[in-house]
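BUG: 3D viewer hangs when loading the predicted structure for this chain

Environment: internal workstation, default settings.
Expected: structure renders.
Actual: progress bar stalls at 90%.

Input used:
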Amino acid sequence: MLLAAPELSDDQLIGSGNVAVIIEYDGSHFHGWQFQKGSIATVAGALAPAIAKVANEPVELVCAGRTDAGVHASYQVVNFTTRSRRTLRSWVLGVNSALPEAIRVHWMGNVSPEFSARFAATERRYRYLIANTPVKPALFRHAVSWTHRPLDAAVMHQSGQCLLGEQDFSAFRAAGCQARTPHRHVSALSVQRQGHFVLLDITANAFLHHMVRNIAGSLMSVGAGEQPSRWIAEVLQGKDRRLSGITAPPFGLYLVDVRYPEELGIPRAQPGPSLLQQWPAVPVSD
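Structure tokens produced before the viewer hung:
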């Protein structure tokens, strides 16, 4: 389990108000978080009826981050209001029994009436996992991104440091992004190699549509030697999406943490994913 949460209790009653939920999911099974018309499978479209079944009433969900199609989460926070009361064990096991195996609830708890999983969050953290191997993976093809081009993680890390702080990220914003402002504050960005994986870890107060995937695609161009290290700073200053690199595939992207003020009582994450220990030792060559 990727969450350091208490044991499921038969004594602790939860409900009759605002309830927070922590879930993980394999995004390759869904067309993103958000409800869509018709029979299109989405995370919210599966989670809401599962919770409603246990609550015995309809529920409306608010999430910390609306992930796109194919994007995963090891730590997504959701809240809903209900008149029902159940034990923690009944909620978690009952909801999970009504969910597809690609989604799992790990924790639920009462929060203040004003709590919003979206607006109470102070930071969100994503990881982008790249398999840097000569042959595209088969077993983990929906869990990682991939490139056969040898990547220099140290150069990628150095190049990405210009993205820290409060900046205009128009150059890394999808054309259809509906955010009111392109300004975001990135508090941490690192790129490191772990065996045959290259791991991009980025934390910000919020993200624009496709922002992480566009940054990942651009940094991969730098790491492969297709662009100089200074190019990321030039792209950022250009404020034009047409100047930056490709949008990296969604499968390697994970929402791994959402930070809230400690007094709200939301359990802390242990950021995943944990595939790094399972990858075979296949050398990367030019």
